[in-house]
Design a protein that fits this description.
Elements: E1 14-17, H1 22-33, E2 38-42, H2 45-57, E3 62-66, H3 72-86, E4 91-94, H4 110-120, H5 122-137, E5 141-146, H6 159-179, E6 184-191, H7 197-203, H8 206-213, H9 225-236, E7 247-250
Parallel strand pairs: 1-2, 1-4, 2-3, 4-5, 5-6, 6-7
Length: 257
């Protein structure tokens, strides 16, 4: 096997949440290009179907799945849909994320706090719980949680977001410990700011996001979603066979200073 062969996802069936847009969509497309059949899961069923169709149009295999990761029955159904479609699940990417309100803990209503945690953290727990039996039956696999540079460094007005992303880093470490004997690797990816719809939600337009956040990165720009997707391909593939319990920073140097 060559070095390039180790990055292939041929024969590895994947489930990607948050696949309708942003990083999740980029990951699903990259997985399809690398040879994986992909379950494209998102609460936005129409957009998930478009991602699935894009993979198919490029010659890959994909199925769209309507999924609310915060609901256990929905998470279980998503895992079953992928296992039924492809015969196994070898890779799970938890990329679904809530839009979070700005403010300190004094500003959040309890319902707002609970909503963000229900998607960003409980959703990851529920998806992992739903997928693990199939992954164990397949002989192992790779689980990837999308965290953030803000799992390591705080930001004003982002208490709930930072808390959830920090939780994912530790959750991955504990899952890596618990499931190493079953040949399951669990890691997080912590991106810096990425040019996704979340940026326009928070800053109004991408130009404003670039002006505000670009200079905070040593590379003086935001990431493109496919730059994060390449890291996910690495962690999903045999190229990262000795990597587990780790947090992979892909942050343009945000946390270096």
């Amino acid at each position: 096997m060559t070095v390039l062969d180790t990055f292939s996802l041929q024969g590895k069936a994947a489930l990607v949440t948050g696949a309708a847009s942003g990083i999740g969509r980029a990951v699903a497309l990259a997985f399809g290009e690398a040879g994986a059949p992909v379950g494209c899961a998102d609460i936005d069923a129409s957009a998930a179907r478009k991602t699935s169709e894009a993979i198919a149009a490029a010659g890959g295999k994909a199925v769209p799945i309507a999924c609310d990761v915060s609901q256990e029955a929905s998470a279980t159904a998503a895992a079953k849909a992928v296992a039924d479609a492809f015969g196994a699940i070898h890779v799970l990417v938890n990329a679904a994320v809530a839009t979070d309100p700005s403010g300190s803990v004094l500003d959040y209503a309890r319902a707002e706090w609970d909503r963000v945690f229900s998607i960003n953290v409980t959703g990851v727990f529920l998806m992992s719980k739903a997928v693990l039996p199939a992954m164990i039956a397949a002989g192992g696999g790779s689980i990837i949680h999308l965290a953030s540079q803000h799992a390591r460094v705080g930001a004003p007005g982002r208490a709930v977001y930072c808390a959830t992303k920090g939780a994912l880093v530790m959750l991955a470490k504990c899952m890596a410990i618990d499931h190493a004997a079953q040949k399951i690797r669990v890691n997080t990816i912590s991106p810096g700011a990425v040019e996704t719809p979340r940026m326009t939600y928070r800053y109004g337009d991408m130009a404003a996001a670039r002006a505000a956040l670009g200079p905070k990165h040593l590379l003086d720009r935001l990431a493109a979603p496919d730059e994060i997707a390449r890291a996910a391909v690495f962690l999903a593939s045999d190229a990262s066979s000795f990597v587990t319990g780790s947090d992979l920073l892909v942050d343009g140097g945000f946390t270096a200073v």
